[in-house]
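Predict the assembly for these two chains.
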Amino acid sequence: MTGMTKMTQSDRQHHQYDAIVIGGGHNGLVNAGYLAKAGLRTLVLERRPFVGGAAITEELMPGFYFTTFSYALSLLRPEIIHELDLVSHGFLPLMMPSSFHPTGDGDYLLLGDDHAQNVQEIRRHSPHDADAYDRYHHDLDQVVQAVQPLFDNAPPNVFGKDPEDQADVAWLLNHLGGVERKVMHDVVRLLTGSAADWLEDYFKHEAVKGFHASSSIIGSKVGPMSPGSGLVLLFHKMGQHDGHLGSWAFHKGGNGGFTQVLARAAEAFGAEIRVSSPVSCVLTRDGQAVGVALEDGTEFRAPIVVSALDARHTFLELLDPRTLPADLVENVERLRYRGVSAKVNFALDGLPVFPALPDTVDHYGGFLNIGPTIEYVERAFDAAKYGWYSERPYIDAAIQSVVDPDMAPPGKHVMSCFVQYAPYDLRGSDWDTERERFGDTTQAVLESHFPGFGDLVLHREVVTPVDIERLTGLTEGNIFAGEFLAPQMYFFRPAPGWSQYRTPLDGYYQCGSGTHPGGCVIGSPARLASQRILKDQSHA
Amino acid sequence: MIRTTPFHPRLRELNTQGLYTHWQGFLSPLRYTSAPKHEYFAVRNAVGVFDTSQLFKYRITGPDAERLLAGALVRDVRRCRPGRAQYTVWCDDRGFVMEDGVVFRHSENDFLLTAARPNLGWFADLAGSLRVHLEDVSDEYGILAVQGPRSRAALSSLTPEVRSLGFFDHAQAKLASAPVTVSRTGYTGDLGFEITVESEHALAVLDAVLEVGAPHGMRPFGEEALMMLRIEAGLPLIDVEWHNSRTAFTDADRVTPKELGLGWMLPKSSLQQDDRAFIGGQAIRRELTEGTSRWAAVGIVVDWADWDRLHRDAGLLPAKSEHPLPYESMLYRANEDGNQLGYVTSFMYSPVLQRHIGLARVRPDMAAAGTEMRVEVAIAHRNTTVKARTAKLPLFNPSRKTAAE
């Protein structure tokens, strides 16, 4: 390839690069890191005054650091940590030592890092479920192992006819052929069925089921009884922290701390980052991407342009849809986003008190799962079906300052609450009207589990799906840049025939969470996209 | 009968696990919670406290105290001013390491030496007719290590002295109305302090420290967390990295200070000006001058991709355990000609470095940082080797460890 020389003053003045990445969220930064590492003069253009996208940390009160949107790490592929040398730029995932699940009757499930003690904790509630817990995790781990190669490679192009596509399909069939019969059946049951059905096979106790069902609805307009919730559950199990499947960590300084690490790594490889630079369109010439134009008219030139935005922005807004194949446009228009998640973040004057555990902080080391039973969560979902938010919402809370005291002044705390269901489209009202009432609803649920909670609140931030869309650009506030529905996954993410990070426009690529295997803070779409780009370059 | 330390009555209440090991005849907690890795992170990201009272403590006083120690310890204690401390070792007459400890100089003629094993007899025999008084004060003091990036902020409200202490400085202070020695010392490779307090005041001091520490995320940590911390920090441990040469049976079980990575204890200038006779000194100086060391101490960092591949090929998820392996692993030449290059004495997955790491001993000609070799590991009931590279010690060395406030 040409142009792999050092940037000259004249190149800068003429805004000439080898590659331009649109969007400085975590995938954009990862993609830029890989391209810069390969020697490409790479520019990242971010609309907002800071990078991070949906993974930012903001000091909303002096000394209190809020993870405005995403708030924990697990799905991040470990290869990226090493390949981009993130540790030397400050990568530091802090262990979350516990999971806490109030059972709604004043009791709780408290799980930690010791398997046998966890089994005893389950047994305290249900002797039957104690050994089921072992089998459950073993079976799920086997499913993860079976699916992992699909997760960590670009989906084969099943519609392609060239030898490379056929070799990819043969690889996939060969891999699937090697999966045990029971494991394969479990894979299909999870990918198509409901989390409730899957969990019924193992557990009897309502709270034990409720605890395990919570990851089946995150970010998705499904209830734990809906078909499809199994897929969401499995997706969240695909992550790991230090080799422990399904484990989560708090990055030092929140997920904004993590994206700052990515920015430093990308810059260390030579990438340039420009903030406050909203891109209005991709510039094309003869069916080839040649650069981008900012909203203020400034143009940047590069033979490679990569969009880290979701499919709707990538195809319908940055390009003229009339230049695209009709079936692609139809598929992108049909994509389901339907955000249902909100954040309610708190600055607290002290730790909340759970009456059954008055004298310890050990239950605040990780997620506080407020959704006692499957039925509780399913009923919370009911409202969303009819265009309203839950009166008793599901909450995934985390008091990050317990694990990372630098997130709040000594003795004070920040609490991140991920809240469902909060549908993007409200029937008969809008989020500007309902924002604070929704915050009150969330706070009332917390008050019912932690009496006196309200007295601790120093500051409250309510982030609705409309806010998520407005601030991050994620369509309809969908945190995964496209729902986790079977017809929107793998070969079909974001659209049939376009799952390999290319677009119909030569030189224009996609690397955001709307491509396989996004979303979550995962980095993998960007990594796989960079492999695609560099491979195309070597053939060019 | 197993003994307990002066801090034990309170620390026992904080221990939810009841898991202890025996350290020199004392109970020592392995962990306080179900997650020793969380205790480890308290030290790497907040602040932790560790009861290290089990150490032997010897008070050495009198006009010839300096003379005795200068002739027994490898580091030149004459260069240790009052208010300073030194990490040091002592050797046999062939220059093989016996033990290690920290010597605190309180005044011209007043020293306190800590040791992992009983040593009074050894030093008393050396004292001969010197005007020196040796006293075993092990049971009279508790030592509380307060370690981690928040340690200074947490302690400064109790003992403002910590703010001005440099690395290996110590000062007399009052803490919870008790006289204490507070020192900028520790065994974690992080910013940290140790508080030496008379046993009768130990609980009051501990309570005060826990109270000021709570808003900073302070938690007690046990030996499992300590092992992770000290391996990352490149700090050797007796009976793991080496054995006391006086009780070893072969030279293969003996190491010199240089071979243990402590060659810096005798700076080059002291080799030319041989003005201090100390036990093992002639042998050590000869080794350093002639370059006859059999081993070099290095860190090793495992190649993550090779580690993952070996596990995946065996049908396993790549294991990442921060618990050190309980045995030594051999190191082989990268081309697998079977030549052994050395061995790994401590091996673990480092959460802050996100790599498997080890403390190792390799042939001096293979010690250059970045040298590729292979580490023996057992995967799926079969011995195999994984790619690794040597690296300079310590593998984790944050600037806050030695930085001023």
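The mean pLDDT of chain B is 96. The two ends of chain B are 44 Å apart (CA to CA).
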